[in-house]
Structures are given as structure tokens and as C-alpha cells.
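Model the whole thing, not chain by chain.
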Amino acid sequence: MTPAERGRALRIAAPLGLGVLFLAAWQALVWAYEIPAYVLPGPLLIGETLWRDGPSLLASLWVTLRITFAALAAAVVLGGALAILFAQSRLLEISLFPYAVVLQVTPIVAIAPLIIIWLKDEVFLSLVVCAWIVAFFPIVANTTLGLNSADRNLVDLFRLYRASRWQTLRYLRVPTALPYFLGGLRISGGLALIGAVVAEFVASTGGSETGLASRIVEAGYRLQIARLFAALLLLALTGIAIFAALSWLTRRLIGHWHESVLPREE
Amino acid sequence: MTADDAQPPDILLASVGKSFRNGVEALAGIDLAVASGTFLSFVGPSGCGKSTLLRIIAGLVPPSMGSVRRGAGDLGFVFQEPTLMPWATVHDNVYLPLRLAGWSRERARPRIAETLAAVELGDFAQAYPRQLSGGMRMRVSIARALVTEPRLLLLDEPFAALDEFTRFKLNEDLLRLWQRRRWTVVFVTHSIFEAVFLSNRVVVMTPRPGRIVADLPIELAYPRDSALRTVPAYTEQCRRVSILLSEAMA
């Protein structure tokens, strides 16, 4: 094994080993002290519950995922469009940016009830709006920064060749901003999921279209702690999957040139 | 040369001055006419305003005083850094000026291939800038400036950041290209050796405020090549410019 291979193997084996150790200790503790399942269920019980309730939990996860992706898509479209507008007009940027900050710093749990009341007939839409508010700021802020970060000499070069505003945007500002945008997107992906969960908590919608957060609330009320853990596990895995997918997208889009993704030459 | 003399100059500067908003007077009383086909170098210490003057000629910076006239035709500009787009291949970087002028990829392809071959980068069309050495990046930058077949080529200390071997090589290559096409060139440098090696006219500048203190023809016949560096007449010309510069600085 080369040192590099050993390093890679260690990077997988070390956290995995620690995880297994932790789960074993947890299970041993539950067995040794006979902790009741409504206080702390053991990993085995949680696994079993996940297997049994899997289909119904996955159906709920699907609801939460739809909210998350709708919010993320809206954040990309509106955030990206707003950033491009900001890059075109400094006046627009300094007029609107503070309000974007206000939206960002106001806790979502404080605004969510309002939005849910205003859009009471549109439950799905109200939840998407809440998740969107959380998700859109990193995209606006990062993309705006990126669009304004074009190399000064390249900007001069575009001027020398009498490039139109549109050409400068398309061939210079947008490619410059892409890594910044993707950085914002990776943050927003996680935030959209958190936003969706928080909104569901506030709304606590019943009925057939129930998201994973509502299932957690419900399981908590009924002291079905194993199910609560199972739902939590699914949420965490979803968050990791979103982050991994967006990291993969980043490598696909800018891997051939951007420093952040290039392998380091030693 | 006599036919050229009858033509209107490619660049005509009349009492050009430049003061920056912070009160620094960068240039004062610059009068200069550059005939078509001239290889002119501005030489001077840092801060003598030679880069600012080049930007004024390019139209990137407006002068505070005086007038600038430039002949018709395209312009090529080479910055001190290669200033390439890191996300684009060598081919696409060179394609940029043509793309901005509305050329289709198909139409541009032969021209780009020809230009890359001229700077000895024919095999690197699909490489990205990060995969190239500093000297090769500068070649790409030069190819980009030449791809529109400009009438006027402006270079702002293009080889200052390169090691001496690479710089000598690029000097020779630039000279070879120019001897073939004879565009008008304005070259900014702080190297007297480089200026004399390349140019048929050297303009010496001094700082605070930047002004022209000497304007002398370099009487060394073209075609020139690397052998010129060891010719006594070359060293003699370098010595002349050097003396003029130190007199002006004193």
C-alpha cells in the first residue's frame, strides 16, 4: 500500500470504526441498564423500526424533499436573477441588499406562522416559501460577490474589444461567478432542508401529505422514540446526500479549472 | 520608409497630460507621433507613467489634458500578466476577441489555429491555462492580441515577470513575428536591453510628472536575431540609452 492509499483507507476506516464502537457502546448501555425504549431505544431497535416503518417514513421524506427542492430551485432562480440585477446596477444593489439581509437575519420560526396564515389554503406553497427564505440568501450574496470579482484587466480587455454588457456578463462575469455561486448553493442545499423541516414543525400539518418533520413531532407526542430516531436518521442521511450531490455538481462544473477542486500537485 | 513617412501617423499625441483624482500628476506635456510600422519602446523607471500613457493610447484611460488620435484599425493589448480566462482552453481564450466581434466558431477556427502555430502553441489548443508555464501563458496572451490581425499592438511590460531565458526567447519570437507582419508596436519596458533589441525607436521617460526626455532611433538593421545581443553596435546603443536615462534622472 502506498502512503496515499493508506491515507485514503484510514479516512474511511477511522470514522467507520468509531461509529461502530459508539453504536456498540450505546446498545450495551441500553441492555446493561435496561433503559426503556420510550427513553432511549437501542440502535438495534431503531434499525428494526426503520425497516418496519421504512415505506411510510419514506413517503413522508418524499413530501419534505419536494418542499426542499422546490425551495432550492426557487432560491437558485430568484437568487441568481437578483444577483445579476445587482451586478448591472449599483443603485439597485445598495437599495435592495439591506432588505435581503433583513430577510436573512429574521429567524424563520418567527416569520413562518405569518406565512402559513397568509397562505392557509396553499400548505405546500407556504412551506416552500419558508424554506426559500432560509435558502436564498447565500446564493444571492455569493453570486453577487462573484459577479463583481471579474479580473480588472479582463474587464479592460472586454472594453477594448467593445463587448456589449450582455457579452461581458455571459463570457466574463458569469463564468467568474460560477465557483462563488456553487459555494452558495452547497450552503443553501442544507439550509433548504432545514427550512423545510422548521416550516413543517411550525405548521405541523396533519392529513395524508405529511412531511418527515410532522412525523417526528407526532412520534414525540406518542413517545414512539424509536420511530423518532429513525426519522431523524433519514433526515441526516438526506442532508448528507444533498451535500454530496452538490459537491459532485461542483466538481463536474468547475473541476477542470478552479483551484478549490483541483488536485494538489506535490 | 519614405512611403510610410507620407502616411498620417498611427498614433498622434498632442500635449497629453494626466492627473489622478488624488492630485498625483502622472504625465505632463507628452507630444508624440508614431509612424505606421514603427516598433517603439517606452523606457523608464517605475512610476514614470509609461503604463498610464499606454492605457491612454489604448483608450482605457481618458487624458486630463491634450488630445489623442489613433489611426483606424484593430488594436491588440498585452498586459503585464497573461490575463487569461482560467475556465477556458487556450483555443477559447484566443477565440475571445473574434467571438466578441461576432465570428462563429467555424469561421474563427482556421485563424486561431494559424495564430497559435505562429506562437508555437499549436499542440496546446485544448490545454487550460493552469497547465502551461508562465512563458507559454504569455504566448497565449500574445496570440489573443494578434488573432484579430491588429494594426496596432500595445504591450505593457509583458515579459517583466518571466525569467531571463524565457524572456530572451519571447523577445526573439516577438521580433520574428513583427519582422514578418510589421504592425505598429508600442512596447513598455524598464529593460534598456530589451528595448534596444526590439525597437527601431526608443522613447526615454522620467517620473514626477512623467515626461519624455529623449526620443532616439535605434540604427540597427532588421532582420535581427539572437546574434545581435553580442554585436558591439548593440551594446553601444544600449550604453547610449543608459547614459540618457541616468542624465535625465540626475
